[in-house]
Design a protein that fits this description.
- This protein has twelve helices and 18 strands.
- The model is unreliable at 1-34 (pLDDT under 50).
- Helix 4 (124-135) packs across helix 9 and helix 6 runs parallel beside helix 7 (254-274).
- It has a seven-stranded parallel beta sheet with strand order 8-7-6-9-10-11-16, sandwiched between helices.
- By secondary structure, it is α/β, with parallel strands linked by helices.
- The protein binds uridine-5'-diphosphate-xylopyranose (UDX).
- Uridine-5'-diphosphate-xylopyranose (UDX) is lined by residues 188-190, 227-229, 283, 285, 297-298, 301, 313-315, 320, 322, 356, 379, 382.
Length: 425
């Protein structure tokens, strides 16, 4: 029989009670999993004070005002411990375990329990949002065409009474009765969105029309996930929501950045013309577990190269800047935004700005590898700097990033290590 992928890492944070208590090696991971539930170790409450432990370690994510607080352990258990599969390195096979036990979700009174549609819910950001909405006790319907999303990202919820997964492309209309729509569907990594630019434009434009049409018809609240790419190669720094951007309409990035700009235009047209209740988040560079190892973005590229001992590929001189936010912060912001009355766009990003060269060095240190740095030509229209002005998010949502980049990177490295060990990448 193969090895059970288990958590025995001694560097796990002190707060990681669940994984550190998993030292009964004779038990299958399924047994441990059900034991935790039986022993009541999954209990949590929604006190804001519980976000940080006494030594300032982050032990929970979310905001009390949006009732979105869940212990980090619960989320970690999902993405750092692939409890549903056993990899056998001798035969290179994976056995998927059938388990009828799910992580406990909040029991909400009917009037608080929402039916929530997440387009692109099997993707990197979408699946983290789905985890949180599920744990909060809502009914969640995911639609995804699995172009960049993966069934595995939400596999742990399949069969749960509050969850539905539907293979569907938002380019085609979709009808369903829901209260809220988080519209995330669109490839977001430059190599992916440039792979089929016509399809990317169609996804942004027709997909957004379809979802706004649905929101209008069923009177659902609609949240568009837009992007920092609407600012293009910015001439204003940092970028505030009032900045109109500097975008090349016929360049290689246009399919994505112009696509998202039209998606914003459509969103406000439906608001003004048809009274659709809208929210718009402009998301800056985001990273975390469940990024595709081969998605081509800098964080996954650098971590994978470092883990394999390969040279890290810097495009251009490496003095272009980006500001990286950890995915849990973003999910906090999206849920807060959905649940406020504010309709103008809001930047969600971490203002902690790095040159790509500095970032490469940070990854080399974190992974502790002998990898070196190599340079490749810069992609056309690559923005030279990017940093969010998050004053609006702070004032309107009471939101600002909590995760230091380094801490998020530690967790993401661990995730990719586990994926490698499990033969999944
Ligand atoms: O291996 C690599 C990959 C990327 N890079 C550079 O690292 C920087 C960041 O590149 P990424 O591909 O991660 O992301 P970009 O900032 O270009 O685009 C992103 O912007 C915000 C989001 O909406 C999207 O996720 C994505 O389009 C760029 O300057 C890029 O040229 C490298 O130096 N080496």
């Amino acid at each position: 029989m193969g090895t059970i992928v288990n958590d025995t890492d001694s560097t796990e944070s002190k707060s990681n009670k669940l994984t550190s208590s998993n030292n009964d090696k004779s038990k299958g991971i399924e047994d441990l999993y059900t034991d935790k539930i039986r022993d009541g170790q999954w209990f949590w409450n929604t006190n804001a004070e519980q976000i940080f432990s006494e030594d300032s370690t982050i032990v929970a994510v979310g905001h009390a005002s949006a009732k979105s607080i869940v212990p980090l352990e619960l989320l970690r258990y999902i993405y750092l411990q692939p409890h549903d599969r056993i990899y056998d390195p001798n035969t290179h096979t994976i056995s998927y375990l059938q388990t009828r036990t799910y992580l406990p979700v909040k029991s909400l009174p009917p009037k608080e329990k929402k039916r929530i549609l997440v387009t692109g819910g099997a993707g990197f950001v979408g699946s983290h949002l789905v985890d949180r909405l599920m744990l909060m006790g809502h009914e969640v319907i995911v639609i995804d065409n699995f172009f960049t999303g993966r069934k595995n990202n939400v596999g742990h919820w399949i069969g749960h009474p509050n969850f539905e997964l539907i293979r569907h492309d938002v380019v085609d209309p979709f009808l369903i009765e829901v209260d809220q729509i988080y519209h995330l569907a669109c490839p977001a990594s430059p190599p992916h969105y440039q792979y089929n630019p016509i399809k990317t434009v169609k996804t942004s434009v027709m997909g957004t029309i379809n979802m706004l049409g649905l929101a209008k018809r069923v009177k659902a609240r609609f949240l568009l996930t837009s992007t920092s790419e609407v600012y293009g190669d910015p001439e204003e720094h940092p970028q505030a929501e009032t900045y109109w951007g500097n975008v090349n309409p016929i360049g290689p990035r246009a399919c994505y950045d112009e696509g998202k700009r039209v998606a914003e235009t459509l969103t406000y047209a439906y608001m003004n013309q048809d009274c659709v209740d809208v929210r718009v988040a402009r998301i800056f560079n985001t990273f975390g577990p469940r990024m595709n190892a081969n998605d081509g973005r800098v964080v996954s590229n650098f971590i994978m190269q470092a883990l394999k001992g390969e040279d890290l590929t810097i495009y251009g001189d490496g003095y272009q800047t980006r500001s990286f936010q950890y995915v849990h912060d973003l999910v906090d912001g999206l849920i807060l935004l959905m649940n406020t009355d504010y309709k103008e766009p809001i930047n969600l990003g971490n203002p902690d700005e790095y040159t790509i060269r500095e970032f490469a060095e940070l990854i080399i240190n974190e992974v502790n590898t002998s990898s070196k740095i190599t340079t490749l030509p810069a992609p056309k229209d690559d923005p030279k700097k990017r940093r969010p002005d998050i004053t609006r998010a702070e004032q309107i949502l009471g939101w600002k990033p909590r995760w230091p980049v380094k801490q998020g990177i530690e967790e993401t490295v661990k995730y990719f290590q586990r994926q490698l060990e499990a033969g999944l990448i």
